[in-house]
Amino acid sequence: MNQREIYPNAPLVSVSFELRHPESDTLSAKQRSLFKELIRQHLPVMRTQQSTVQTIDLGPSGPVQRVSTEEVPKYFDRENTTAVSLHKNSIIVETTQYPGWEGFREIVVAACMARHEVSNFDGVERIGLRYIDEIRVPGTDVPDWGSYLNGSLLGPRSDNGIGLTLNQWQGVAAFGPEAGRSLVLRYASGEGFATDPNGELRRKSPSYPGPFFLLDVDSFWVPEDGVPEFSESLLTSQSEALHAPVREMFEQMITDRLRNEVFRK
User: Fold this and answer.
1) Whether 38 contacts 119, CB under 8 Å
2) How many domains does the chain have?
3) pTM (2 decimals)?
4) Which of 23, 37, 73, 241 could serve as 89's disulfide partner, Cβ 3.0–4.6 Å?
5) Does any domain span residue 1?
6) 220: nearest Cα among 90, 131, 112, 126
7) How far apart are CA 209 and CA 232, in angstroms?
8) Would 42 be classed as within a structural domain?
């Protein structure tokens, strides 16, 4: 099997990248305009949003909740399927129309280099990649997931003698850390959608509520020693290392029946 195969009916609904850095000042109007010029080839439309952050401080009289707002510039492609958000402490790239790793990586590198050019940030605290799949089997009201998925995802046995049907289950598998890299796989049966079908980014194709199986892979790196300086070589090397196990994990979790009857249709 070719691990680089592009499935015509792939279940991927969301891919996101995050580079977390020490908190910096909010970008000025001039800096936002400069960033827009640098990223225009990929994301020519700029909008501004308000982001709300809730924190809890422990004081002498107990926990105190604080709410703060942040004005976040966000840059979109013209199809509203890909966006970059510039927060005080992070750069987030997200898409619902994944162009493949090489195309997505190009946007990630362009966004991070442009952000660093308009206002240097002090280093890198975390880099992460997240892939969310909604696996659906058309024409089935209650899919026989045992025919389509690796047995390790199937939860408790339904013939366990308790007299009740197993209808839903979820699990988490964590790998690492090793050399600062970790991977977390979240999986669950579900009904409806794993991501908001009416969200800010347009989904790649219309979808209808119904049974699905979630595969959510979060691959991330946290420096083990201090806060390294940002560089393009650090960004690309760590991103490649984080991406490498994602496809392998996905392929291990599905069966040839799912590939042939659903993904290759």
Assistant:
1) no
2) 1
3) 0.89
4) 23
5) no
6) 126
7) 41
8) yes
Residue 110 belongs to a domain: yes
Angle between helices 29-39 and 101-118 (to 10 degrees): 150
DSSP, collapsed to helix, strand or coil, labels residue 148 as helix
- Beta-carbon contacts of residue 57 (< 8 Å; ≥ 6 apart): 63, 64, 66
The answer as to whether 6 is a domain residue is: no
Angle (CA) 39 41 46, round 5°: 55
Q: Is the peptide bond before 177 cis (omega within 30 degrees of 0)?
A: yes
For 196-209, what is each residue's pLDDT tens digit? 888 899 987 666 77
Give the domain extent around 258. 12-55+62-263
Alpha helices in 16-144 (DSSP H): 29-39, 101-118
**pLDDT tens per residue across span 94-111:** 999 999 999 999 999 999
Dihedral sign for Cα atoms in the order 152, 153, 155, 157: negative
- Give the C-alpha distances (Å, rounded to integers) separating 80 from 3, 34, 77, 83, 163: 29, 21, 6, 7, 48
Task: Give the rounded distance of the alpha carbon of 166 from its chain centre.
Answer: 29
CA distance 36 to 177: 36
Which token pair is 114?
Answer: 């442009």
Q: State the Cα–Cα distance between residues 177 and 187, nearest whole angstrom.
A: 20
Contact between 105 and 98 (Cβ < 8 Å): no
* Mean pLDDT taken over the chain: 89
Which neighbouring-strand residues pair with 134? 214
Q: Report angle CA 212, 215, 217 to the nearest 5 degrees.
A: 160
What is the tens place of the pLDDT at every residue in 45-70?
Answer: 999 877 665 656 666 666 777 666 77
DSSP-derived secondary structure for 224-258: SSS-PPP-HHHHHHHHHHHHHHHHHHHHHHB-HHH
